[in-house]
Design a protein that fits this description.
Largest sheet: 6 strands, antiparallel
Strand content: over 45%
Number of helices: 0
Order of helices and strands: EEEEEEEEEEEEEEEE
Radius of gyration: 41 Å
CATH architecture of the largest domain: Sandwich
Number of strands: 16
Shape: rod-shaped
CATH class of the largest domain: Mainly Beta
Structural class: mainly beta
């Protein structure tokens, strides 16, 4: 079975093309078809084949020869034709016209927004790690140093906050410590006795507190999430270790 390598041609076969000049005179003659150079045609004058660029020259559809007089004969045999290149109209290329392995410049690709992604997709994530720790014996809430700024891309998306707090109590008395999470000035999570130790004989006690909150701020403005802590009861000191961490993620909804 006959076959070929490459793309399927638009036209399977084309007949050889010739052009006969019935009364050629002068030096300039018009070709029926445009050609790229002199080697693309065979020119025969008075039954003599002419040498390209010596016996004639071409430029598009203009054929230039030596001066021909009345009674001379000339015909042209087209060996190759200059085909026009068609530029597709703007915005006319669709997915079916692009090869799967085509290398397309990123500037030609439409930007993907959060609304193009399925629900549950993480749009962005930020993290913060406690650098110096916090130690407090005050009932007034104080910043722990864990703080993250994030700007949601859509008002319909949620913000998930996860924090791992390495806490410790130092003292001989019972102690309750409060933990709260703020979005700017709004309390997202607040438990006064979030960490509680009623075992007075324990002079030092280490513990881990995890927070996992899903917040719906309905905003595309910059938001600051931060964690605060206090020592709400007793005379002991509550400390937050430098190994504590906090993660904030925007999730598509």
């Amino acid at each position: 079975m006959a076959g070929f390598i490459g793309n399927v041609p638009a036209t399977n076969y084309e007949s050889s093309l010739t052009q006969t000049f019935s009364t050629p005179t002068g030096t300039s003659h018009t070709l029926t078809y445009s050609v790229a150079n002199s080697a693309d045609i065979l020119v025969v004058i008075n039954n003599v084949i002419q040498e390209p660029d010596v016996g004639y020259a071409v430029s598009g559809t203009t054929l230039t020869t030596d001066t021909l007089a009345s009674g001379d004969t000339m015909y042209v045999y087209y060996l190759a034709l200059a085909r026009n290149t068609t530029t597709p109209p703007a915005l006319s290329i669709d997915n079916s016209m692009v090869a799967a392995g085509a290398a397309i410049d990123q500037s030609k690709l439409a930007a993907i927004s959060g609304s193009d992604l399925p629900a549950g997709t993480i749009i962005q994530m930020k993290a913060d790690y406690q650098a110096g720790g916090l130690s407090t014996s005050s009932a007034t809430f104080a910043d722990t140093g864990l703080s993250i700024d994030i700007t949601p891309t859509s008002t319909s998306n949620d913000i998930i906050i996860f924090a791992s707090l390495e806490c410790s109590k130092n003292g001989a008395f019972a102690l309750a410590a409060g933990i709260r999470l703020l979005r700017d000035a709004t309390q997202v999570y607040n438990v006064d006795w979030d960490i509680y130790d009623q075992d007075a004989p324990n002079v030092f006690l280490a513990m881990n507190k995890s927070i996992f909150i899903e917040d719906s701020p309905a905003s595309v403005s910059s938001l600051t999430y931060k964690i605060q802590m206090n020592a709400s009861a007793g005379t002991n000191t509550m400390a937050l270790a430098a190994t504590s961490s906090m993660f904030v993620m925007e999730v598509a909804r």
